[in-house]
Amino acid sequence: MFIMIVVENLLFFLTAYAFKYLFGVIVSPAKYDAEKIVLVEKYLLETFIAISLYVIVKSISQYVSQVQASRVSEFIDDKIHAAAVDLDLAFYESPEYFDTLKLAKDAGAERPNQVVTTLVDVVKNALMFCGISFVIFTINWLILPILIICVIPTFLVRVALADKLYQLREKQTPVERQAAYLSSLITADTLAKEVRSFGLGDYIKRLYLTIRLDLLVQRLKIIRRGAIHDIVTSLLGSFGFFGCICFFCYNAMKGTITIGQISLFVIIFPQLFNILQSLSQGISGLYQNGIFLTQLFKFFDLKPTLVDKTDTTALPVNDMLELKMENVNFTYPNSSNPVLTNVNLSIPPGKVIAIVGLNGAGKTTLIKLLCRLYDPTSGSVILGEENIRNFKIEDFRKTISAVFQDFGKYNLSVADNIRFGDIYGNRPFEDMVKATEASGANEYIEEFPNKYETIMGRIFEDGREISIGQWQKLAIARALYSPSRFIILDEATSALDALAEYEFLKNFRKSIGNKGAIVISHRVSAVKHADYIYVMSHGQVAQSGTHEELIAMDGDYATLFKDDKEIEA
Ligand SMILES: Nc1ncnc2c1ncn2[C@@H]1O[C@H](COP(=O)(O)OP(=O)(O)OP(=O)(O)O)[C@@H](O)[C@H]1O
């Protein structure tokens, strides 16, 4: 790119000088003879070649610039994704993260491109400026400083405007995110049913428009003020430009400059003014993009809070180990209320453990800790004899497969939906079938003409939408397909009909083999066959035991079970 810029500039000056010599010969007092014609033809040919080369190089240079810009854009996109993948769950549960991500994405999409292209323009214009300055300097040394002084105020005004616009953008980011969220409510498929049945479309549309208009008014106020300052300072620049022309005309009339210099001046001087304007625009643009890129780097600088210890222990080979929680307390970051208090529980291999409790009791939070998506504030999670903090996070997470309440509905093929449980395992197809048979998903998959190659969901062509219960069966198949040591179902059977849930849980112990399992369900009657049951209340284990023991205790569990039975009846 740099080579192209240098060549392009050289060709521009070559063209200008070819013109200078051409005019010099044409208006020379030598008479019209064969020698003069040959000379004119020679300069005409040289001018033609120089112009043609200039045009070709300019086009190539534009092409190279576009290729470079696209590559930079892809590169930055990939870096943003890599940084986002590395961050842990805590970031995804905090608004500050989304603000930083938004600003980084705003910067990421186009700014690096703009930096490259603006930088190229600045270098190009700076080289051109040096060349033209030299030529102008040979004509009259005073012209240059006058012009520069006249352009400086425009430059300062643009830098100040960039600063103000950036500050405003930073301030507006949370509100802009709110507007984007409202827009997604009426454009995305997720809430299409609810928005229509409650007739929310117009209301959300108006709310969105009000926010956007408010943001626009604030922005336009700053832009308007900037435009007025820009007009005033640009006028000053034009005065300088005009002054130089007057000065030149005066000297031309006096005959102190040659006709060749006049032709050079006519070609070059308007360019100089344009270049100075572009340079000031380019440098202030670089400054503006620079402050945006700061946000991109701020995003890249985010570091996961959960990191591997320097001396990690290898996972024990023995896969018949218990997973335990010992005196675990937990408070979410940015919150002061403890969500778990002194929790003790254990999940032995090959056993099904159930956790029941009212909404907000802390069940899902407990699962997040078991999966090491968060670390306990105090107390430990232990695999066998080892605190899970001593293992590599990536290795430990592979020991658990979980189906969360908000599990993934991947709009990809059935096979991909299951393969995601063990994405790098090169497993035989039979394993996939075994998993879908255990979850009950095979019943509907077998009816699809394309079976496991059927695309799920309605987002893409030929996609098949399935019911929530069927999605759940697919998610359970994914967890069963995973070669993990423990499997967790967090209300993963909530949408299954009572019979399907009963059938599934009856066979669940057989499907898990030696794996330890946790099942969370609000249907207490569905988990009564679990080997051991924990009852959670306000972040604590209020009761624990087998179904029979808990019924005999006549506490929270017995009440939940009785309520459940009455509702079922
Ligand atoms: N990311 C978070 N940041 C702060 N507090 C949270 C967060 N997630 C959950 N909580 C709080 O932790 C408490 C326990 O939530 P949790 O989701 O663990 O309950 P739960 O027992 O799974 O409820 P449910 O049966 O409704 O799924 C709730 O009071 C909730 O407000």
Key traits:
569 residues; alpha/beta; ABC transporter transmembrane region fold; Rossmann fold; 6-stranded mixed sheet; 4-stranded antiparallel sheet; 17 helices; 10 strands; binds adenosine-5'-triphosphate; ABC-type oligopeptide transporter activity; transmembrane; transport; ABC1_TM_sf
Could you characterize what this model shows?
Helix 1 (2-26) runs parallel beside helix 4 (95-139) and helix 5 (143-187) packs antiparallel against helix 7. This protein has 569 residues and is α/β, with parallel strands linked by helices. It has helices at residues 2-26, 34-86, 89-92, 95-139, 143-187, 192-197, 201-254, 259-300, 363-370, 393-397, 414-419, 429-439, 442-445, 468-481, 498-512, 547-553, 556-568, and strands at residues 323-331, 338-347, 352-357, 378-383, 386-387, 400-403, 486-490, 516-520, 532-537, 540-545. The protein has 3 domains: 2-300, ABC transporter type 1, transmembrane domain (ABC transporter transmembrane region fold, Up-down Bundle); 320-399 and 485-569, 3-Layer(aba) Sandwich (Rossmann fold), CATH 3.40.50.300; 410-483, Rossmann fold, CATH 3.40.50. A hairpin with a 2-residue loop joins strand 9 (532-537) and strand 10. It is elongated and about 125 Å long. The chain contains 17 helices and 10 strands. The longest helix is centred in the middle third of the chain and has 54 residues, at 201-254. The model has no long low-confidence stretch (mean pLDDT 86). A 6-stranded mixed β-sheet has the order 6-7-8-3-9-10, with helices on both faces. Strands 2-1-4-5 form a 4-stranded antiparallel β-sheet, with helices on one face.
